[in-house]
Each structure stands twice: as C-alpha cells, then as structure tokens.
Amino acid sequence: MEQRISLITLGVDDLARARRFYEQGLGWVPKDAPEGVVFYQLPGVALALFGRGDLAEDCHHPIDGRFSGITIAINQRSEADVDAVLAQAAAAGATILKPAEKVFWGGYSGYFADPDGHVWEVALNPQWTINDDGTLTI
Questions:
Q1: For the whole prediction, is pTM greater than 0.85?
Q2: Does the chain have fewer CB atoms within 10 Å around its N or its C terminus?
Q3: In CATH, which superfamily holds the domain spanning 1-63?
C-alpha cells in the first residue's frame, strides 16, 4: 500500500456550526459543499466535515463518546505562528486544552478542541521543514 493520507473526515454534531468555526473563525475556504458534507483543500490532503451520525452510519461504527486517541496537527514555522493559530482558534470558539509551551522533544506546541471536540495540535518542530506550499518535510 502506498504511504499517504488523502482525506481526513471529521464527524460533526452541527454542520452549519462547524462550517462557521472553520470558515468564519479560522478563515478556511471550502472547495466543495454538496448536500450534507463540506470539503476543504489543504496542501496535499483534504479535510471533510460530515454529520457525526451520518458518518457513524456510513462506517458502521457506533458513537461511543470516548476520545478516539487521534489528533490532527497544524505545524507552523515559528513560536509566534503557533501562538497566533491558538489565539485565532480560541477567538473562533475552540477550547484551549493546553496552551503552547516548550516541549520535551525540542519543539513548541499547544492543543485546542474544535466545537465538536476534535483535538488539534499546533506545533513548531525545529527539525522539520514547512515548504513554501505548506507541505511538511520530515
């Protein structure tokens, strides 16, 4: 199997609220929004928002209310950029789970949860490169 991720889908409780958070709050622009789903083109990958119940039905997995153990990361080029993204997310209605701080692996990171509880890490890893097109090179 080829080593890549093409699409990340987040199950959301209220699609309109989720769209407001990502579009008005974070400034993201949808690429496509057919009935019941919205897609955002990101560098090299896409993100979809889909009703949580519809997603559970589609994948035949019940909603059990537990943290899935999955986080999504937005890597940045500087500590100031990390702080700015966390502030923007908080202003848009995110819950800051961990304010940004220097971490044991030599970087700087913090976490927020979007209005549906999806956990995002915002990080600077000085050993990694954020390319001009926004893609990550490890």
A1: yes
A2: N
A3: 2,3-Dihydroxybiphenyl 1,2-Dioxygenase, domain 1 (3.10.180.10)
